[in-house]
Amino acid sequence: MFPQAADQATYYYPEDGLLQAYGVVQDHEIRDPQYLDVHGEKCLLIVKNGLTTGTTVGRTNGLESFTRIYDEYGINQTSIEIAVLPYDKNHGRFSDRGDSGSVVLARDGRIVGIITGGAGPTDETVITYVTPYWWIEQQVKAKYPGCFLYDVVP
Fold this sequence. Notes:
By secondary structure, the chain is mainly β. The chain has helices spanning 5-8, 27-31, 133-143; strands at 35-36, 42-50, 54-65, 68-70, 75-77, 81-86, 103-106, 111-119, 127-132. The strands form 2 sheets. Strands 2-3-6-9-8-7 form a 6-stranded antiparallel beta barrel. It is globular, with a radius of gyration of 16 Å.
């Protein structure tokens, strides 16, 4: 999760080994990540613990997909999805069937989003799709002002 030596200097590994979820990664951080992967490319390094694949690491690079409109079915809704790629060839896929709904965290513990699906050959998922949490929260709060979707832990 910390392929660049400069990033490792301020990292603290929790005594219990559990990454505490807090805060939310915002849109501008997802679109323009500031961390570098092992190849020096900008990305957001992420982690999740899913029902099927357990704990896995991956990376996003700011790519998003948007609206689906199916006029013949009367569906005209906007959704935002982030493309998640495996961390590298040695770590395997980020998710598989049964991992949908898993919360995805940035390496610092902030919530990135929730897994909604994947794509790739039938024997492996090459791309995982995550709905950004900032967007989910925005949609819910528009309908239910003043609500909180998770307890804030100091």
